[in-house]
Amino acid sequence: MGDSTLADQFFDAAIDLLQRVREEEAEHIAAAGAAVADTVASGGRLFAFGAGHSSLPAQDVVYRAGGLALMNLLAVPGAVGVDVVPAPLGSALERVEGLAAAVLDSSPARAGDLLVVISLSGRNTLPVEMAVNARALGLKVIGVTSVAYAKETRPRNASGTFLKDHCDIVLDSKIAVGDAELSHEGVEAPFAPASTVVTSALMQAVMAAAAEELVRRGIEPPLLRSGNVDGGHEWNGRVMEEYADRIFYRR
């Protein structure tokens, strides 16, 4: 068999990371799923936050077919995705002190709710303060991050800590510092990031674990169906009506 292509090498790297996460984070995934199930069962609300590209796995579990209807995106204007112009402004906002507190104070989040904070490096002000302030409000916090950054980089926030230091449960994505899986002769910079693939898989695994735990307790998981299958819109309408007080993306 000939030499593998760079595309092949990326798939191999991503598969290896997914396998590591599956094996090494199984206990934490189960704990996170149980925490989500606890929140659903007790009448709490679910929120997910991520800045920049870390917002993609957060958005991936909000208002989607096969997803929990109760998961809401906690958005920070200008920091979600790369639609802000100029794009570097989004990165700058991650270093603004006090922004997380302002967002949380104006959000519907309250004690008894659950917040997933996603940050690959976990070193910037916004995700760290988001976790700190959420816990102070009485929310349970699940952090999804690469613990390698806490070992190999310095914090970039006033507290001198990382996201992992302020979470009830931490899920380690195992992504290496720099988030680039490949290098190649003639290419000056490393390339092919896998953090979105792995982090999105982690989030979906947690949602699956939560559904399994809810069923074990005799509770029907409040899931959405695809609007592109017959009966999907009617199903979703019933779910959204039943849980209207815990769903904020439709208001």
TrEMBL record:
This is UPF0309 protein RND61_08585. Transmembrane segments: none annotated. Pfam families: SIS_2. Belongs to the UPF0309 family. CDD domains: SIS_RpiR. PANTHER family: PHOSPHOHEPTOSE ISOMERASE, SEDOHEPTULOSE 7-PHOSPHATE ISOMERASE / DNAA INITIATOR-ASSOCIATING FACTOR FOR REPLICATION INITIATION. Residues 36-219 form the SIS domain.
